[in-house]
Design goal:
324 residues; alpha/beta; TIM Barrel; ten-stranded mixed beta sheet; 11 helices
Amino acid sequence: MPFPATRLRRLRATPVLRDLVRETRLSPADMVLPLFVEAGPHAGRTPIAALPGIERLSISAAVEEAGEAAALGLPAVLLFGIPEHKDAEGTGAYDDEGIVQLATRAIKDAHPGLVVMTDVCLCEYTDHGHCGLLRVDGAVDNDPSAELIARTAVSHARAGADVVAPSDMMDGRIGAVRAALDEDGFADTPIVAYSAKFASAFYGPFREAAGSTPAFGDRRAYQMDPANGSEAVREALLDVQEGADVVMVKPALAYLDVIRRVKEATNLPVAAYNVSGEYAMIKAAAAAGALDERAAVLETLTSIRRAGADIVITYHAKDACQWL
């Protein structure tokens, strides 16, 4: 029997041929860099032990870091705020002089062409660490919490945020945010909805970085069960109906199938968050000599894009830009 006429190896023979037929491409334009901005009198950078290479930043340091991101070709940063003081209502989240609001103004003044996205949640600002207001029984009270999330989004937009990203997973909060933005004159401000945010084991380093570990219980009553894929699609479709401009899946690596399903179901731009635990695993393995960090990072980020993500939020962003 003659050898089959089709030989797939023909197009793998050289780097140029491989690049010519590559199906999925990764570039700086696909990535967003998260930044942790810390309030207080200090200036500079505070290393985060659980996230090697990532730091808590003063506002001046955040402006500097944003400039470095822009110089590398990154189109956007995503801001997380760490306030000086916390309370049961998370008032620092929607304070017009809060840390994210001040950082947004400073970054936009210094780098007007850089897109500033802001995380819209209460967990970094509440003394109990949950993403909303608590009822007497300790459960998160959905509807009043959604109102405060909407108030926070408006405050961020007033400060100059280009995009707001509600991450709380309260039912109906995208509709509440959209209505509040429209009413306050921000009809053109896009919403990136954390639509399918799972109650994941991969958030540990982030909670150390942001100081947002719940003081009691967990977030399983409002974040998604990791076993559920169809529910993730329902969540995304509800957010689309409520006015989301981009839908997000978080985490990314353990949920590549969900990214694909959400992309196919919504036909909207899809963001995927390559979260802190995923980052820390590669860093730890590379430090132990178990793998090549550059190759592992680029393969990982490419896989997220291949699954259907248009936007990849990742702590690897600066390194990846330099390697690309």
